[in-house]
Amino acid sequence: MRKALIAGNWKMHKNHLEAIQVVQKLGYRLDPADHERVEVVVCPPFTALRSVQTVIEADHLLIRLGAQNCHWEDAGAFTGEVAPGMLAKLSVRYVIVGHSERRRLFGETDEVVNRKVKAVLRHGMTPIVCVGETEAERDDDVAEDRVAAQVARSLAGLDPEVVAGLVVAYEPVWAIGTGRTASPDDAGAMAALIRSEVATRWAEAADSLRILYGGSVNPGNIAGFMAKRDLDGALVGGASLDPDTFASVVRYWV
Ligand code: PGA
C-alpha cells in the first residue's frame, strides 16, 4: 500500500550539462515496470533543475524531480536563497528538508526544518524530512530519543492528513558518505520507532507515511533495507551520481 520511493541526492555535484546526461541515461535504463514498482526521484542542484525538468518532459520520463533545500518564505530580501514557489513552478515534487549536512554545516535547527516543511507543503510539494543521530549520540545511547525528538519537532503543528503523505528519511549521520551503513535490522528498528512516534501524535497518519533509509546505500546493500517492513525506500547520495549504479539501486530486486 505504500509505494517504494528511491531518491537520488546529488548534493553539490553536476553542472546542468552533466545533469542532462545523467537523467537521460537513467531514463533509458529504467522501464515502465520499474516505475510501477518504485517511485524514482532525482534531486539535482538548483542550477540544473530547469534543464532536468525539460528533459523529463521532452522525453516523457517517469522520473520525478526533487530539490535539495529551499527557504521558508515565499519571497523577500534573502540574498542567495530560493523560494518554495520557484521550485513548484519547475514541477519539483519533492524537497529534501533538514539534511544532516544542512543541519551541521548551515546551522539548521528543528524549528527551521519545521518552517521549511510547512513552506514546501504550502506550495503543493512533498518534503523529504531528514532525521538521524550523530555517532556521539549513538555511543551515548540517546539515538532513539534524538530521532524521536527530531520527528516531533520537525513535524510540529501539521494535520494528520498532511503527515500521512510525508516522507521521512532516517539517515544516521555517521553513515553518510562514509561507506559505513546501519545494519538493515538497526535501520528497520529505527524506522519502526519513527512510525510509532508518528502514531502517538498523528494516529491515522502512521500507516501511510513513507520512511526511507539513507547512508552509504549502494546496489549491494539496498535489498537488505527494502526487505524491512517499516522501510519504504532509500535516500541515496554517492551511488546516485552514476546512472548505471543508481539504476541498479532502483532495480534492487534484480
Ligand atoms: P550517501 O549520502 O549515500 O553518499 O551516504 C546519503 C545522503 O546524504 O542522503
Describe the structure.
With 254 residues, the chain is of the alpha/beta class. It has a single domain, classed as TIM Barrel, CATH 3.20.20. It has twelve helices and eight strands. The protein has helices at residues 16-29, 32-37, 46-58, 84-88, 100-105, 110-122, 135-139, 143-154, 160-163, 184-201, 222-226, 243-250; strands at 4-9, 38-43, 64-67, 94-97, 126-131, 167-170, 210-214, 233-236. Strands 1-2-3-4-5-6-7-8 form an eight-stranded parallel barrel, surrounded by five helices. Helix 1 runs parallel beside helix 3 (46-58) and helix 8 (143-154) crosses helix 10 (184-201). The model has no long low-confidence stretch (mean pLDDT 97). 2-phosphoglycolic acid is lined by residues 9, 171, 176-177, 214-217, 235-239.
Name the features.
254 residues; alpha/beta; TIM Barrel; 8-stranded parallel barrel; binds 2-phosphoglycolic acid
Overall structural class, as computed from helix and strand content, comes to alpha/beta
What is the percentage of strand-forming residues? 15-25%
Mean pLDDT across the residues is: 97
Give the overall silhouette.
Answer: globular
Helix and strand element order: EHHEHEHEHHEHHHEHEHEH
CATH architecture field: Alpha-Beta Barrel
Bound molecules: 2-phosphoglycolic acid
Q: Which residues form runs of ≥5 with pLDDT under 50?
A: none
**From the alpha-carbon coordinates, what is the Rg to the nearest angstrom?**
17 Å
User: What is the CATH superfamily label?
Assistant: Aldolase class I
How do the helices and strands line up, and which of them pair or pack?
Elements lengths: L3 E6 L6 H14 L2 H6 E6 L2 H13 L5 E4 L16 H5 L5 E4 L2 H6 L4 H13 L3 E6 L3 H5 L3 H12 L5 H4 L3 E4 L13 H18 L8 E5 L7 H5 L6 E4 L6 H8 L4
Helix pairs in contact: 1-3, 1-12, 8-10
This protein binds 2-phosphoglycolic acid (PGA).
2-phosphoglycolic acid binds next to strand 8.
